[in-house]
Amino acid sequence: MGEAEVGKSTGNGDNLHWKTVGSPNRWTIVVWDCAGVKFREFAPRGLVAFLADLIAGKLKVFPGVFFKPTPRFIPVVPEVRGKPSAAKRKSK
After folding, report:
1. Helix or strand run (H / E) with residue 49
2. Rounded CA gap, 49 and 73, in Å?
3. Does residue 8 belong to any structural domain of this protein?
4. How high is the mean pLDDT of the chain?
5. Which domain holds residue 63?
6. In b/e form, how buried is each residue of 52-91, taking b as 16+ CB within 10 angstroms?
């Protein structure tokens, strides 16, 4: 069994890890609560799905005040060298 860290601290010392057992599509996400020295393991899912469920409130992992106010997704459009992004063109 192995582990690979995928995320650091939530301000309270928690860390996110993959539990690297078997094929990558079967890896589970483990949250290490440093304060309580506890490990919580979550069913196999991609990291994006885990984070989406976490932000949507479907998973209770961190203190309730962690996501207050509710997070918003603000897309960033990268610029192509020499050309302004679509967002900048619209704002002119």
Report:
1. helix 47-55
2. 15
3. yes
4. 75
5. 3-85
6. eebeeeebebeeeeeeeeeeeeeeeeeeeeeeeeeeeeee
Check pLDDT > 70 for residue 20.
yes
Better-scored residue on pLDDT, 85 or 63: 63
61 band by pLDDT with thresholds 50, 70 and 90 = confident
22 torsion bin: left (phi>0), alpha (psi -120 to 50), beta (else): left
Tally the domains of the chain.
Answer: 1
User: What is the edge-to-edge ordering of all strands in the sheet holding 14-19?
Assistant: 3-7, 14-19, 28-33, 38-42
- Dihedral pair phi/psi, residue 53, rounded to 5°: -65, -40
pLDDT of residue 39: 82
Q: Is residue 21 part of a domain?
A: yes
Q: CB within 8 A of 39, min separation 6: which ones?
A: 30, 31, 32, 33
Residue 11 has pLDDT above 70, yes or no: no
